[in-house]
Amino acid sequence: MSAAEQGAAAASLDTLVAGYLHMLANERRASAHTLRAYERELRNFAAWATEKCAPAEAASIEHTDIRAYLSTLYERGLSKASAARALAAIRSWFKWLASNGRLERNAAALVATPKLPRHLPRVPSIEQMNRVVDSVDVDVASWPVRDRAILEMLYGCGIRNAELTSLDVDDIHWANDAVLVRGKGQKQRYVPLGDAAADALRAYLTERSALLAAASEGKGVATPALFINLRLRGLGKSGARGGQARLTTRSVGRIVKRIAILRGLSGDVHPHTLRHAFGTHLLEEGADLRAIQELLGHERLSTTQRYTQLTAAQLTEVYDRTHPRAK
Fold it and tell me: In Å, how far are 70, 80, 86, 170 from 73, measured between CA atoms?
């Protein structure tokens, strides 16, 4: 294929990718995180297909081509989980192309998902979590009152990192002791706001207001974002969200990991670990699995079951207490 032909084919596939991403953003209201992930995976696949497939058109791509692409991912050292994410994006794209008459058949539907090993999430104990959250101080945090509020919200409400960073001040419904959370696909749910989280938020909001007042110098600069960065980077700049000084998910990840490590937890702790702990500890204390499902915002109960776990000691205790032949 000549350079000119490759350019034309790339433009054709890129146009189809762009159309799909536009639909995700405007019709399905996909989150920014989802859009970035799908764009990365589909652009990479389109670039590979432009070079390897002849002709490099969506209708000419076979299931064997998609399998060959997954093989290249393995050769580059990517895990089965990473390959599965890439395949999920390609499948979704091909399904959309077929439903819109761009394809007569969906070749991606013939490609099996890589079999993934099942790992129970390792979560800190209740005692460990209480110790970490209660001990956030200047030795582990650049803004202790904010960072403690972050931990309280992640562990106390069980929300995702992206849900946390997208919260606005008005999403805290103090009268109802609840937080309005926008989950995956812009689905909304209310989660309870416990006393500890509420106290941490009030303390943080006081310092947040003082910081913004000092920065505005009478200009009335404000931001709806609940969690903001300490230096107020980007505050007042133009853009849909660029002027909000909103804390990023990456920053939250660094904050959680730093506090966890300095307080003696494992180095693999991240914001989602606190969400795992939320579900696991509720289950340990006797909460109904379907109630946990609602709190976590899971569509399927099977997802909730993967996010929770019982220790061997707890299972033994339940068996000893309930089975007639155990006594």
Answer: 5, 9, 9, 43
